[in-house]
Design the sequence.
């Protein structure tokens, strides 16, 4: 296992980048703790795979360094970094059996055959392929081959880090849940440093100790699922995390009150915000009103089983509210109110800390 340090790291696919906009991965300075499980989460093209490939050594950064436990490995080839990587599409040896595919990384490092047999059996049980160990990989389904790739990535206990690049894309939904659970169990048992790239918030939030949210080539927040939900550091985090995501409305702020759509909103704390100021509030903290609050009009109600999502229009903009599954939605709803404890204030897309409080 290893602590991973990203020191002044950035990358451009252009030979001579001239501005920050030319960088697919903008400057990063982060320490990722030894033995923790991280998920790199963001939309396609945000820089997740670029960063993962730099960590693995498949890509050399345009600037900066990457260190494993303080050792500079920026110029070290992948083989010397002692990592295991599982890619989006399965990479297996078709002419080998499932057993030999799983055993290959251990045999390649000269491990004792008795240990190999025991470890392969353990991993096969973990990925649900005990009854397929003697079958050739050729002819297996794509999801079966990906399970082999996952197993081969997990078979070594001595790696510095396990890297997963959207590994469950070709896996059916039920198996996705089981494999995520197994990966989490493996992490708890052996304490590997794990980095898991995904665009799926459910995968990220159920797998990782810390989620690294990326947007436009930049890390905009690193936090626990609870931190990302309650205090999104950037409006993108609020939008991307949650279903539905955070409501964001233009606002003006003066002390502990904001003006939204011509109405006064109590913020519960004092703020100072300039530039493009917005109020963010998750649907769970929006309540419907028949008399007081911000004028709103119901556009539709979506019953999703566990609760109802109420889509409303406020000042020409759609927002969402969460209502209980059994809750009646009166036809004369004409306003919404925001719970102060669920409000975040943003200036130029970044969260503003209440006056007198330390940044979260």
Sequence:
């Amino acid at each position: 296992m290893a602590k991973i340090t990203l020191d002044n790291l950035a990358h451009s696919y252009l030979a001579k980048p001239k501005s920050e906009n030319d960088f697919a991965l903008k400057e990063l300075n982060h320490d990722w703790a030894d033995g923790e499980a991280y998920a790199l989460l963001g939309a396609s093209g945000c820089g997740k795979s670029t960063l993962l490939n730099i960590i693995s050594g498949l890509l050399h950064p345009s600037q900066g360094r990457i260190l494993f436990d303080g050792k500079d490995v920026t110029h070290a080839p992948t083989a010397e970094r002692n990592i295991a990587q599982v890619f989006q599409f399965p990479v297996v040896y078709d002419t080998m059996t499932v057993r030999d595919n799983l055993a290959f990384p251990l045999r390649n490092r000269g491990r004792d055959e008795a240990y190999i047999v025991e470890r392969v059996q353990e991993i096969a049980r973990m990925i649900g392929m005990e009854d397929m160990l003697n079958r050739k990989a050729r002819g297996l389904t794509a999801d079966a081959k990906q399970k082999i790739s996952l197993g081969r990535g997990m078979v070594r206990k001595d790696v510095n880090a396990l890297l997963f690049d959207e590994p469950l894309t070709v896996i059916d939904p039920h198996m996705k849940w089981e494999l995520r659970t197994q990966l989490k169990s493996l992490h708890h048992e052996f304490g590997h440093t794990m980095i898991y790239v995904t665009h799926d918030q459910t995968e990220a939030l159920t797998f990782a100790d810390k989620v690294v949210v990326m947007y436009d080539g930049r890390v905009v927040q690193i936090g626990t699922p609870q931190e990302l939900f309650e205090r999104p550091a950037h409006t993108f985090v609020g939008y991307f995390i949650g279903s539905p995501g955070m409501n964001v409305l233009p606002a003006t702020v003066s002390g502990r009150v904001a003006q939204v759509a011509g109405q006064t909103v109590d913020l519960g704390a004092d703020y100072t915000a300039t530039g493009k100021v917005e109020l963010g509030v998750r649907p769970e903290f929006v309540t419907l009103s028949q008399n007081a609050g911000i004028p709103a009009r119901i556009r539709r109600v979506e019953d999703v089983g566990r609760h109802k999502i109420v889509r409303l229009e406020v000042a020409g903009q759609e927002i969402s509210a969460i209502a209980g599954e059994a809750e009646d939605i009166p036809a004369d709803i004409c306003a919404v109110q925001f719970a102060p404890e669920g409000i975040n204030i943003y200036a130029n897309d970044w969260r503003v800390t209440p006056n007198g409080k330390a940044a979260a």
Q: What stands out?
A: DSSP finds eight helices and 22 strands in the chain.
